[in-house]
Each structure stands twice: as structure tokens, then as C-alpha cells.
Amino acid sequence: MEIGFNKPYLTGNELNYIAQAVASEKISGDGLFTHRCHEFFRERYGFPQVLLTTSCTDALELAALLCDIKAGDEVIAPSFTFVSTVNAFVLRGARIVFADSCKDHPCMDAAHVAALITPKTKVIVAVHYAGVAVDLDPIKELAERHGIFVVEDAAQAVDSYYRGRPLGSIGHFAAFSFHETKNVIAGEGGMLVVNDARFAGRAEILREKGTNRSAFFRGQVDKYTWVDVGSSFLPSDVTAAFLYAQLENLSFIQTKRLAIWRRYDRGLRPQLTDRAGLPTVPAYATNNAHMYYLVCQSLEQRTELIRFLKSRGIQAVFHYVPLHRSPFATSHFPTNNVLPQADRYSDCLVRLPFYFELTDDQVDTVVDEVNRFFA
Ligand SMILES: *Cc1c(COP(=O)(O)O)cnc(C)c1O
Predict the structure, then answer these.
(1) Selection from 334, 170, 182 nearest residue 243 by Cα
(2) pTM higher than 0.90 for the full model?
(3) Could you report the per-residue pLDDT of 162-218, keeping only the tens digit for each?
(4) Which of 127, 135, 172, 199 makes a 20 to 30 Å CA pair with 165?
């Protein structure tokens, strides 16, 4: 039995909705299905303004533009994250200052963030790793005290909460991903949430090539024209049609993913408690079952585990190379900062197969093989 790491799940309605979008003869951006997706997120999570984008990377770039990042501004972000978290700001000339992860969780350590703030700090990017919230209250408190923006990189965090508040609703801006490796997908796709009403108008203008086209379509201006900088960040309605089929099944998808996560946890936690690190969900956070991971004792042990599982037909994968050690960061943002936790997660964390169609038998097989390895 071969068990791959990821397999995109199709709900069955994707092609129907794409056919409807095509038949409507309005397949560019901001068509019927884009509006349905926007409404879904506004209603379900109370997000004040949502804008579908072509990717989470694009949503982050839009956030960087809205924060008006200038050369020399400092942006604090975790080192243990995907490159887009910081590249969006680097494109605008920012200097990235890397924060370490928590000891008991890969998310950024708020205490370390506090130590990194300088008069030049303009943005803190909070990445909700594995869909589990960063401890946002201390981050928000720091941001308010120093006049700093908070951007949530919620790429993995759909349908997850922090102290009862949906992730994506807490920072000034939040960026979600619908890449095929996430819980709900559109192939490539993303979304910007704008929580600060001061930026509502500018956000839709920058997303529409710097024009007031959206206001024109609402009948608020009698012609549309160039009013600001901008680019093309909106996806075609074909992408939105695909996504809407997924969103209609979000609860169904989440219920199944949580069942898989709990089955892994029941099988592994009793055996591995003293042998490997297991995922922790702090009391302030919920788990959206984006991922199940283990933290090995060493790089050598992780390499052996991946090799062992591979020999049994199971694909387990490591995650990020810490950004502060990347070739780009060491040449552009050299620092003496040591980030031991980011290094540890980079060396030791391994992700187990996780996708909607994983059967109980397959989960049990992975559990048995992992337990055999550690025994
Ligand atoms: C997936 C991911 C991204 C990028 O999302 P895209 O939609 O592929 O641009 C950014 N940040 C994190 C933390 C991610 O997991």
C-alpha cells in the first residue's frame, strides 16, 4: 500500500460551478462566484472585508503595499515559515528581522518578538503554523504600543480560532491560501482580509490595477480611472467557482480532517510521549487539522524515520529550511541572532500523510509503522 503525503480533495461540484461561470459569459475577476466566496467568508467569520486574490503570496504583497512599506522599514517575521511570508515585504524594500519559534510549538515566540522591536519596525507578521494560532494578544499589545501593523499569515489557518475569535479577524490584515496543499483549495488561490476600515477603499483599488473600477461597478463613480499604484491581484471567476464548491463543503471537510487528526493522535501520543515531540494546541488556540507532525530528537533520527517510512511505502516530509539560514537572508539580512527553536523544527520536524481521503486503515498503518520505528 502506497500512502502519499497529500492528495487534493474534490467535492464533486467544482466542474458544475465552473460550467456555470463559463455559461454566464463573465469569467474575469469579481464575477458571481467571487461574490459568493466573499459573502461566505463575511457571514461565516464576520470578516469585514474580504478580497479573493490569485494566491496567498499575492494577498501578502497587497498587505505590504497597504502598509506602505518603504526601503529600510523593518518587518519582524518567524524564521520557520514559507518564503512568501517575508518576500512580499522584501519586494517593497523591507529589512527582515527573524523571530524564533516557541519551545513547545513552531509558532513565533511573542517574548522574542518584543525584544526585536526598534523604532524602524513597521510590521509584525504572525504565521499560524499548522493552523494553530500565534499567541496574538501580546503581539497586538506590542503593536498598539509601538504603532506597528500586524499581518496574519493565515495561509494554513482557515476555520481556526484564537480565544474564540476566528484567525484572520485579528490583525490589521490577514492572508489566506487556497493552494492545493491547504484544507480548502482552488489549485492556486488566496484571499486578503482587511480588518482596519481605514484601508477598505485603498485595498480594492490596489487589487484592481490602481483603478477605482470596483466603485465604478457599484455606480459610485461615473467613469473609472487610474487613482493609485496597484497591480492585478484578482483571480478569474473560474478559480472562484472551484473554490465555492469547496467552501460549501467546508464543515464536511473539517469534520473529516479532525477525525483523521484525532486518530493519529490517539495512536501515537501514548507510545511516543517520551520519545518524540507531538503537536501541541495551546489553551488559547483551536486545531483546524491542517497537519499532523512529529518532532524527532535529531536530524539523523528524522532522516532515518523518513527513510524507514519510505521503505514501507509511506511518504513523510520535512518542512521549512529556516529563512535566517537561507542564502538570500545570509547575504541580505546578516545577523548574529541565534534562533535555536527554528533550527530545531527545521532539522527535526516531520509531517505525516494528511488528506481528506486518507482511510482509517491507512492512518492505522502509518501509526503502526511510526510506533515500530520509535520502539
Ligand atoms: C502555503 C503558504 C503560503 C503561500 O500560499 P500561496 O497561496 O501558495 O501563495 C504562505 N505562507 C504560508 C505559511 C503557507 O503555508
Answers:
(1) 182
(2) yes
(3) 999 999 999 999 999 999 999 999 999 999 999 999 999 999 999 999 999 989 888
(4) 199
Distance 220 CA to ligand 1 centre (A): 34
DSSP 176-195: EE--TTSSS--SS-EEEEE-
For residue 164, the tally of other CB atoms under 10 A from its CB is: 7
Q: Extract long-range pairs of 336-344: CB within 8 Å, 24+ residues apart.
A: 337/98, 339/79, 339/98, 339/99, 339/100, 339/101, 340/100, 341/80, 341/100, 341/101, 341/102, 341/103, 341/106, 341/109, 342/78, 342/79, 342/80, 342/98, 342/100, 342/101, 344/101, 344/295
Looking at residue 295, what DSSP letter applies?
E
Atom of ligand 1 nearest to the CA of 58: 9
Pocket lining: 57 vs ligand 1, CB cutoff 6 Å:
yes
Compute how many other C-beta atoms are within 10 angstroms of the C-beta atom of residue 223. Answer: 6
Gap between the Cα atoms of 103 and 131, Å rounded: 17
Phi then psi dihedrals of residue 230, to 5 deg: 170, 180
Q: Give 285's DSSP letter.
A: B
Ligand 1 and 152: CB distance under 6 A: no
Residue 108 CB–ligand 1 contact under 6 Å:
no
